[in-house]
Amino acid sequence: MKAVIISEANNLRVAEVPDPTPGPGEVRVAMEYGGICGSDIAYWKSGVSGTAVLREPLILGHEVAGRIDALGEGVEDWRIGQTVTFNPATLVGDHEVPEELADRTNLWPEVRYFGSAAFLPHEQGGFSTYRVVRAEQLRAIPEGVSTREAAAAEPAGVAFHAVSRAGDLAGKRVLVNGVGPIGLLVVAAAKFRGAGEIWAADLADSSLEIAARMGADHTVNASREELPGDFEVVFDASGAPAAIGGLLLATRRGGTLVQVGNLPGQAAQFDLGQLVTREITWIGSYRFIDEVTEALEAMAQGMDVTALLTHEFPIEQAEEAFATAADRSTGSSKVLLKLD
After folding, report:
1. Whole-model pTM above 0.70?
2. Percent helix, strand and coil across the chain, each to the nearest 5
3. Which ranges carry the Enoyl reductase (ER) domain (predicted)?
């Protein structure tokens, strides 16, 4: 089968590797679509994503969807030909967690994740012709939702988790800062959850145009316009420390700022004075629990993610696809690989 493999920084290739066979309790999926994530780009550019360092060849990709191709022994609740996406996480290690955190599986101390170099051996990803998974990792794609759309279910799960962290958004005035793919999906999720008025802020007009198609009522180019204020809920999907001070000012007194974008892992300068004087609640949001399922249901009920899916390349053109995804001047948002 074909697979998109990174073996060191700037060494991305499409290679032939052996076809996998499902074991007991496993399912083989013929992959159809995969979305390129920022972590995939980080491995390509530097061999490092966050604290994970590439130490052996790695098949990239965790935003993927396809069709069941083979069932392992003992798998009864799935059928050949069924369209599916995945929860790419596997909890590992023998840990005890406080009872109140038991259901918050995204906070488990050790998690293997599709296409991640965090562990050795690495957890291979899904940018390949086939992927074998445990049956419990499958998520059925509802009728009316394509595998192309469902490739966005994993990042949409991140967005729905962030929206859940903010509480009830019904009728509220909301700002989403940074409308790359995650921020755009936060716009869509907030709209689906009943937000009353949604503003989107970014530095790129092309991204703001997509935000308007995804449900933003107003857009602001922060490179030349001031952010309005008095938002009950603000989502920062940029992860830019320099933005935090302005976002705190844009948050209504007593309001909530949800941090979705990853902040730097090293010392960074923040302007946090308004956090105290305005009694703002600043909340972190990390990955998702099982909001992938909620995202799929939202798509089935009419949440349209197609505006997000700006570019598509066959698997053979993976390097061009990665270059397009990494260059915002191309107007790209979510770049897809056609894996079959």
Report:
1. yes
2. 30, 30, 40
3. 7-337
